[in-house]
């Protein structure tokens, strides 16, 4: 009896916990509501199966408990029942997979004219780059990186001259425009994730990875690294600020371009738009964040 | 079902080869230390696996202390924490679960259950254990080298695993890779034994479709391991070369801490493919033996045949096959070609069908059964609940686009702990309560067993259920401390403290279990012969516990499947596999089925 009650308690308790839990999605701030919908659907289908199986077991444990004079029923197979269950399960799986693949197709298809935005990861900080007036990011390579060219841009590429190199670890992005996030790493794997955007992708050194999303509300959001990247992984943070296009353009003007920062470096004014200088002051990078 | 439960005496062919004389140990050392008897090797494997598993359990307490009370334990720094999670994961998956299911239960059960005197290559079997022990010792040694063990996460992803920003990148990671390579060498020696013994050394009448599901599970899992481990082996060798000789298999151009390294042109994703080509079958290397063993536990203690035996066998085989074409579902957001997502999501969700079928058949085994709520039965029920729970969250993570927000969050941690941590452990505990009487001749104490079950099952469920929801919130895994965020409420810290307390309570309950195992060895109730009234051959040996050579002068002959419980018209509610049909005692009044 106690065991049957335990099983009922587990089934009912799980459902109650699901609906009462104070921990649930952070309010969404991107176009990926479809992902939340697919999850809700998956919850209904799988939740039903879980509750049904556990309650069925509870019933069996109570109803068919051991009695000395009893004998179990002898029915080694029931092919018809097994095929029915196979069919129903297949139906449930198709019901979850089909919408899932439709949404994945959207996830991997970047809309034409999406604004490019680059995040560059390194142990354990973020840097950001936005295209200038030409709307194109210049080519880059880790090999080009010097103190004066911390993003490793190709100095001969005209598209890179007007690229905006964001000063600091806060990126601003305009509301309501599809954004293609291009991801590069100087050293190890990282991952760009803002929980409210629901979309993430690993950053792989030696490659440029990407994903896209459209911000749907303004605000300041935490950017976290979501792929273990060494001892300072948990401290690799940034911010993404979503604001109206007008505010965004005003902010963009205050940020230095690649051409300008190169010129400044040549003139020796040493007003670099990155943290190479502050870095050099510490004994080793990331030192302050590791307790 | 004619081929599993014959009506009359059928023709049993004579043995094709004569009984081969075994190696007979003459000294204490060759009998109990450098032993070639699979049953002794099984105990050696199990004891070593459980000992190193206890280290991993203590590591989980330490990491939970940090997560539950981040301000109180200043002795744990970020480097320690990442070392704890790495060693905890690697030990639990490889050195405990794989070694215990295959080296432990595989060695003990295969020869006895198929009616063989021993494994077919006893000397190689002995070597297998000693190489495994060496691998464990090298793993332990990494705590005593400069820099300590590796903190790269159990997935050991390069470039991070071998660069200075990760703890243990000096020597720890090299020892880890060497230890893994040795583990695979040792496993291969054992694995070839298990497969060959099942194929070649079954006794007369033991057709493949009469094997107990325990043997089927271990057999298919071993084939998976023999095919999957080589991928990990080459990955370990290549990464060792990258680390020591600065080759660039997995290393692209890198600027580490402001300094350009010598590496150039390698692919970090190549490692991930190799790792998961091993890593996903690994899940089933642990799960399939659990599937098999739990089927037997359910059947024996529910006093009913397993429902749909043939479907259960085919499900094991199909799951095993499919497990080789799903590996990249661990890599949906790794930056691999996104079009792979369509293929791997489809194959992954297809696996759910045979898996669900197994769950239904376990549940139907209980239908109209005569269920004895023994300790093994309690743990078997606990397995089904936790496995279904962990299995359905796999449908979230397998469905590519749903994985995008959930990957690398605490949801993943909760999922794999439920499905390949708690669920297989339920089976391991159930199996120990079930076969301890055979191994020692004594029963484990029932009251302590009940306490152990209730605390472990309820506790483990209470630990991992809420952790899923932290994943929805966006709490990342592998974070030493959460620090300041705008989206994580205070209540998460309260939950983390609660979980830590439960972890310590469940940990305490395991000591009750260990005490039970030790005490019962001397003071347990005498088990007698076949205390569970089981049908399989391991309980039908001449002496119990079975001695060297397992069976008496004659090997048993098998006349029926392993699940003859509650057969109509028979006096007892079970008929062992080796009783000839004309010796089965029939009930006086004919069928007495209810």
Radius of gyration of chain A using CA atoms only: 27 Å
> What is the beta-strand fraction of chain A?
15-25%
At CATH level 3, the topology of the largest domain in chain A is Immunoglobulin-like
- What does the oligomeric state look like here? heterodimer
Which structural category do the helix and sheet elements of chain B fall into? mainly alpha
Q: Could you provide a short overview of the structure?
A:
The complex is a heterodimer of chains A (291) and B (594). By secondary structure, chain A is α+β, with helices and mostly antiparallel strands.
Keywords:
heterodimer; A: 291 residues; alpha+beta; Immunoglobulin-like; 5-stranded mixed sheet; 7 helices; 10 strands; disordered C terminus; B: 594 residues; mainly alpha; Cytochrome C Oxidase, Chain A; two-stranded antiparallel ribbon; 2 strands; globular
What would you say this structure looks like, in words?
The complex is a heterodimer of chains A (about 290) and B (about 600). Chain A is an alpha+beta fold and about 290 residues long. Chain A folds into two domains: about 1-20 and about 25-65 and about 80-110, no CATH class; about 115-290, Cupredoxins -  blue copper proteins (Immunoglobulin-like), CATH 2.60.40.420. Chain A contains seven helices and ten strands. Chain A is elongated and about 100 Å long. Chain B is an all-alpha fold and about 600 residues long. Chain B has a single domain, classed as Cytochrome C Oxidase, Chain A (Up-down Bundle). Chain B is built from 14 helices and two strands, in the order H-H-H-H-H-H-E-E-H-H-H-H-H-H-H-H. Chain B has a two-stranded antiparallel ribbon. In chain B, helix 3 (about 80-115) runs antiparallel to helix 6. Chain B is globular and about 85 Å long. The two termini of chain B are about 20 Å apart.
């Amino acid at each position: 009896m106690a065991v049957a009650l335990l099983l009922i308690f587990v089934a009912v308790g799980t459902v109650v916990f699901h609906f009462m839990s104070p921990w649930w999605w952070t309010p969404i701030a991107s176009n990926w509501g479809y992902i939340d919908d697919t999850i809700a659907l998956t919850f209904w289908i799988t939740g039903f199966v879980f509750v049904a199986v556990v309650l069925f077991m509870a019933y069996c444990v109570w109803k068919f408990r051991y009695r000395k004079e009893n004998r179990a029923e002898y029915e080694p197979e029931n092919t018809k029942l097994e095929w029915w269950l196979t069919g129903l399960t297949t139906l449930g799986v198709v019901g979850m997979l089909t919408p899932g693949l439709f949404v994945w197709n959207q996830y991997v298809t970047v809309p034409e004219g999406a604004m490019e935005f680059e995040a560059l990861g390194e142990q354990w900080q973020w840097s950001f780059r936005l295209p200038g007036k030409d709307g194109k990011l210049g080519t880059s390579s880790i090999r080009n990186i010097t103190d004066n060219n911390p993003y490793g841009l190709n100095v001969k590429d005209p598209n890179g001259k007007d690229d905006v190199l964001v000063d600091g670890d806060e990126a601003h992005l305009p509301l309501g425009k599809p954004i293609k996030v291009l991801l590069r790493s100087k050293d190890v794997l990282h991952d760009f994730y803002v929980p409210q955007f629901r979309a993430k992708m690993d950053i792989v050194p030696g490659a440029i990875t990407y994903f896209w999303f459209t911000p749907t509300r303004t605000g300041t959001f935490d950017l976290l690294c979501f792929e273990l990247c060494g001892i300072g992984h948990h401290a690799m943070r940034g911010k993404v600020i979503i604001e109206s296009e007008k505010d965004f353009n005003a902010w963009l003007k205050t940020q230095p371009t690649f051409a300008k920062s190169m010129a400044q470096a040549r003139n020796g004014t040493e007003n670099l738009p990155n943290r190479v200088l502050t870095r050099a002051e510490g004994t080793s990078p990331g030192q302050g964040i590791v307790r | 079902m004619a081929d599993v439960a014959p009506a009359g005496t059928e023709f049993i062919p004579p043995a094709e080869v004569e009984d081969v004389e075994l190696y007979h140990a003459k000294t204490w050392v060759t009998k109990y230390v450098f032993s070639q008897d699979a049953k002794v090797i099984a105990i050696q494997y199990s004891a070593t696996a459980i000992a190193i598993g206890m280290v991993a359990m203590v590591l989980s307490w330490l990491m939970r202390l940090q997560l539950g009370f981040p301000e109180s334990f200043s002795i744990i720094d970020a480097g320690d924490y990442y070392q704890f999670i790495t060693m905890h994961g690697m030990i639990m998956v490889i050195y405990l679960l794989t070694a215990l299911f295959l080296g432990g239960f595989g060695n003990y059960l295969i020869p006895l259950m198929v009616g063989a005197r021993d494994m077919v290559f006893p000397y190689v079997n002995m070597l297998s254990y000693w190489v495994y022990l060496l691998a464990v010792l090298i793993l332990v040694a990494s705590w005593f080298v400069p820099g300590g063990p590796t903190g790269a996460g159990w997935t050991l992803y390069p470039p991070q695993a071998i660069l200075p920003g990760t703890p243990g990148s000096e020597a720890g990671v090299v020892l880890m890779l060497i230890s893994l390579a040795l583990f695979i060498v040792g496993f291969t020696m054992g694995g070839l034994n298990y497969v060959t013994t099942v194929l070649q050394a079954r006794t007369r009448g033991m057709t493949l479709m009469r094997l107990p599901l325990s043997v089927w599970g271990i057999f298919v899992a071993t084939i998976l391991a023999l095919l999957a481990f080589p991928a990990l082996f080459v990955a370990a060798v290549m990464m060792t070369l990258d680390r020591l000789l600065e080759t660039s298999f997995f290393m692209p151009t890198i600027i580490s801490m402001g300094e350009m390294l010598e590496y150039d042109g390698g692919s970090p994703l190549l490692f991930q493919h190799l790792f998961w080509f091993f890593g996903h079958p690994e899940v089933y290397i642990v799960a399939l033996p659990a599937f098999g063993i739990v089927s037997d536990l359910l059947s024996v203690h529910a006093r009913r045949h397993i429902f749909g035996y043939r479907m259960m066998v085919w499900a094991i085989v199909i799951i095993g096959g499919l497990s080789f074409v799903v590996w990249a579902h661990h890599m949906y957001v790794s930056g691999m070609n996104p079009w792979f997502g369509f293929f791997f999501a489809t194959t992954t969700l297809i696996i759910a069908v045979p898996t669900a079928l197994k769950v239904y058949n376990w549940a139907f085994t209980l239908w109209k059964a005569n269920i004895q709520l023994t300790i093994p039965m309690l743990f078997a029920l606990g397995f089904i609940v936790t496995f279904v729970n962990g299995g359905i969250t796999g449908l979230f993570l397998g469905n590519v686009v749903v994985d995008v927000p959930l990957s690398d969050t605490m949801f993943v941690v909760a999922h794999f702990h439920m499905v390949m941590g708690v669920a297989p452990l339920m089976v391991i505990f159930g199996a120990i309560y079930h076969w301890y009487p055979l191994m020692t001749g004594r029963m484990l104490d029932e009251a302590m067993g009940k306490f152990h079950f209730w605390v472990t099952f309820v506790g483990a469920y209470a630990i991992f259920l809420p952790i899923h929801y932290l994943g929805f919130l966006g709490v990342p895994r592998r974070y030493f401390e959460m620090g300041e965020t705008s989206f994580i409420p205070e209540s998460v810290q309260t939950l983390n403290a609660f979980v830590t307390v439960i972890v310590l309570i469940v940990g305490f309950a395991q000591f009750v279990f260990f005490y039970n195992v030790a005490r019962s060895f001397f003071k347990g109730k005498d088990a007698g012969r076949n205390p569970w009234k089981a049908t399989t051959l391991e309980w039908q040996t001449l002496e119990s516990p079975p001695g060297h050579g397992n069976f008496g002068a004659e090997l048993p002959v098998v006349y029926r499947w392993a699940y003859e419980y509650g057969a109509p018209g028979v006096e007892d509610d079970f008929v062992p596999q080796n009783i000839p049909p004309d010796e089965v005692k029939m009930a006086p009044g004919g069928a007495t089925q209810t």
